[in-house]
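Explain this fold:

***
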Amino acid sequence: MSETITLTAADGHSCPAYVARPAGTPKGGIVVVQEIFGVNSHIRSVADGYAAAGYLAVAPSTFSRAGQASLELGYAEADMKQGFGLKTAVEELPAPGVLADLQAAIQWAAQAGKVGIVGYCWGGLLTWRAACTLKGLSAAAPYYGGGMTTPDEAARKPQVPVLAHFGDQDHWIPLDTVEAFKKAQPGVTVHVYQANHGFNCDQRGAYNEAAAKLARERTLAFFAQHVG
């Protein structure tokens, strides 16, 4: 069962979020963090997948603070340009910015028990930041977080177990920066796949079924260990 709810952050900002509920009692909660393309059909399907695996899944709109809460983009070049512009606008907001909305999503998901967070692309970066700065999480699984392997981000200290996924053919995240991140974060489990950026998304040309399947299996096992 799915629905759209409204989350309210600590600063009073209202943020819509897609919710997918499991058939039975939830094992726990999972916050799903969008790419730069909005809470589109792909992100909703990811949330549905976690609900099918037994979790209460919530996907907040991280574009809401840019005035584009309901925007859904595809994966063409024009969509990428628009999404990148919105991401840049949100990133330029005063701290904590969009992290306040993720905190609200975590608190909402906690009705199901322990909470994990998973995010893709920009959402992977936000997932990493959430693991290092937000409260109420038990685990975090960033996928190809753009910017996550920069020295400033790699210097952060995660407060919960982190499982990170990268592709060795990702021209947005050079492999040498992934190796540097691994050295800086020996406590983080890092998996590198023979795949491109966006390998998890079956609506993108970069989709890699084998890598996506293995990453999902690993992430589900990780959440089963730390969330429920």
About this structure: The chain has seven helices and eight strands. Helices lie at 41-52, 77-91, 99-109, 122-133, 151-154, 175-184, 209-226. The mean pLDDT is 97.
